[in-house]
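Q: I have 297 residues here and want to know how they pack in 3D. Can you give me a structure?
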Amino acid sequence: MTDIDLRGMGVALITPFKENESVDFETLGKLVDYQLQNGTDYLVVLGTTAETPVLSEEEKNKIIDCVVTKVRGRIPLVLGVGGNCTRTVVEKLKQNRFEGIDAILSVVPYYNKPSQEGIFRHYEAIAQATSLPVVLYNVPGRTGVNMTAETTLRIAHEFKNVVAVKEASGNFTQIDDIIKNKPANFNVISGDDPITFPLITLGAIGVISVIGNAFPREFSRMVRLALAGDYAGARAIHHNFTELFNLLFVDGNPAGVKSMLNAMGYIENKLRLPLVPTRITTFEQIRNVLRQLHIRC
């Protein structure tokens, strides 16, 4: 089953922690409600922003259950299932039933630095291991290797259940090449909030967003206006967020968005090592920008 609509704004959900660093499931449920009430088109569970590498398998399963139970099929759910051991990812895809999950997001293998042929074969194994739609995730700043446009297009043309790529390379020429030469059943999704607006003008269908955790209504409106061709309206919202975009990532992700949500009163400002909260100076800058945007904090 490869029919899934990923147009618009998806949000890469954070994992809220209590002061003792245990997962705050009550707050997670409230954050999901916040997304459902404010126009988010779909949710991404256990992606980069969720601090997935520091979660136990038991915690991951409980997080999936919590989100699936809250959403109740009202919007699509995309689950992060990736790794740098192809065999392990394939076994997970074959063994899990993924009730309530509509698609898989799978990152380019990290640390190993595979060749382009290795990347192709990795995704070939994944595509053959599941009937769910698969979204590729190219983020060379984290993985240490870039999946080229040629490799992305080769995968897109070869495997019908590979339906999209989340592109976070920041390379406009590469992304434009993919958009220009992709098959009709394959789409490009922005993996970077700051460049979502210009990528939509090139033909991307939306974003998997970090800032949408805090501003789902506003950022989803920007995406919808851009998709509808109202570039002036979309650009105005985009420019409103320019300073926050910079502050969001200066001390790493999800430290920035967790500081933002903490300042807005939604969560404790807790991360698990090796990640730590933003510097106090960054936190104060975030609070100042929120006040300028007339957000209570």
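Q: Anything worth noting?
A: The domain at 8-228 is CATH 3.20.20.70 (TIM Barrel). Residues 54 and 259 are 19 Å apart (CA to CA).
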